[in-house]
Amino acid sequence: MTADPLARSLILPEPDLPPGSTLLDEGRALAKDWQVGPSAFLDHVGERSEAAFKRRCAGENRIMRHGQIGFRDFEKSRRCYHEIWETCDKAGARVDRYGITLDWAMGYPLDMRTGPRGTGMWLESPEQCVALTAAAPVAPHFGDWALGFPAAVTNTCWALAAGSTSIGNLGQLFTFRLPGWDDDVTSVAETVKALGLIAAQPVEVLVHSNLDDGFSATFTDLSSCLGAALIERHIVETLIGGSMAHCYGHHFSEPVARMAFHFALADGATTPGSMVYGNTTA
After folding, report:
1. Which of 57, 73, 193, 202 is 20 to 30 A from 119 via CA?
2. Closest CA to 16 of 195, 189, 178, 153
3. Distance CA 129, CA 160 (A)
4. For the whole model, what pTM was predicted?
5. Is residue 7 in some structural domain?
6. How many domains does the chain have?
7. Secondary structure letter of residue 18 according to DSSP
8. CATH number at residue 222
9. Which residues pair with 102 in a beta bridge?
10. Cα 143 to Cα 132: distance, rounded to the nearest angstrom
């Protein structure tokens, strides 16, 4: 008799996986101690969350402007966090949001962060995160190396303390790997806890996923990419009670295709997307 290729014992051989409901409860419990902290950006724009500001911008036919920031040297990053905003403001321009370019090694648990690192931003504590984002009234988007890794809970707590209401990257859970780390169960478990913490916040916090960082990057048709996005939306919003925000654009340029995908992604969405990129890889 041929073995069932879809048998649970073959796909998930671990005998005792932690129940999702238990992990979510653990994450929700953390919300007693970790909530969205003070935000220079939210105070400046008079909103309770980035999602609320995005909706206001949409109502005013205004595009929210995003830029990436992050140097290995913390003080340089903090100085630039202010100087970029100040220079734009004096010139009559806007920068509404910074993508915090964390180093990939920040995905490791705290006790493993003494090993090799990359060239991205390195933050040592929640206090450093707060000091960084307080430097200017620009929304902090912790969009990489938070969700999807064994440090998901730690990095989410730190991002919340820094006033961030947009945290990711859920897409990285499915495809990214840290050197020397092969424990997928822990990575998923910590991510589920972090999602529970996010969903339990008293204000709306966007769960960001860059579709081009997840399974969608391997597909050759946009309908499959949309299907992957809908699965993520179902997990975050229907099963967990959070707010899903997708990002796309790295892999294709054709204007009509981009517009069609944008409309399809917006259909049925209850939250604004995180951002739209130009074609950076194809």
Report:
1. 193
2. 189
3. 9
4. 0.95
5. no
6. 1
7. P
8. 3.20.20.240
9. 121
10. 15
